[in-house]
Amino acid sequence: VLKDAIELRSSDIHLEPFEDEFRIRYRIDGVLQDVPVPSQLKRFQPAIVSRIKILSHLNIAEKRLPQDGRIKIRVENSEVDIRVSVIPMIHGEAVVMRLLRQNATLRGMEELGMDAREIDCFRRVLQMPHGIILVTGTTGSGKTSTLYTALNEINDADRKIITIEDPVEYQLKGINQIQVSEKAGLTFARGLRSILRHDPDVVLIGEIRDHETAQIAVQASLTGHLVFSTLHTNDAPGALTRLVDMGVEPYLVSSSLEAVLAQRLVRVLCNECREADHSPAAQQFKAQVGIPLDTTIYRSVGCRQCRQTGFYGRHAIFEWMDSDNEIRSLVLKNASSGVLREAARAAGMETRQG
To answer: If both were cysteines, with which of 139, 214, 282, 336 could 277 make a disulfide (CB 3.0 to 4.6 Å apart)?
Structure first.
């Protein structure tokens, strides 16, 4: 199952027990897809779950409480870190495994999918001596990959870069990386305090989850550090209001935050089976969004390559927002995300709708 999921580029494996079946699904390009399994597999469900628990160093006798663990495997010269979550359900224990490929190649800035303006803006803030740069989006939207690309861009002998992450998804040469360990008492906040005593120039915080971490991140930026982190919001303006909602004073958010990059991943049509769409609906769509009518657009079909879905791979779309004087002034007034969005659009921010 693991090898099959990795070959199919899955990000997650779901093992779900039901009364009369044991369902296996892979999340491929952000969408769950069923995997055909023989009906007799249901009776091996407890053994399969127990084996996964052993591999991830969990208590196989504990079937009443949720458990989390990790597995490291090597598949065809590639290391894969697997985060395991086990939860008891009424018909047995359900397992979700998130696959993190350790040997994934870092992309260059131009390969992320940003347009020329967004790349220029990003590179400009990367050269700032201090401030906070946030990357925001839903879970699995590629925020970590974007941050790693940013760190790789400024990783040189003149800067000391330290990260604190949960988990460390990729090991970056020349960068000091810390793994959060809640069981050992190493939280984001505690680790961040220690990092600041190690004379860093750049700090990456895997995620700002609470008031304490947010407060320390802001103070770090105000004392001469360039700070990168992530938040879970649907758009760029929402990141500013989220920090205020966490209890950070608006004047601190206004003075520390330099830019926000919101992103999401959208599925790409399969090149092997896509077909040109000349239907009236396609022509109407081009007219609505302002695409030249002689432009060819395509529709999904489905083939063996894409498992009959019509899609293969994903592409990132971005929303870049600078903290200019108008935005900072609105944050000081505790403006809503809607007001911030209108101000950012007036200043040239391109939104990503849909």
So the answer is: 282
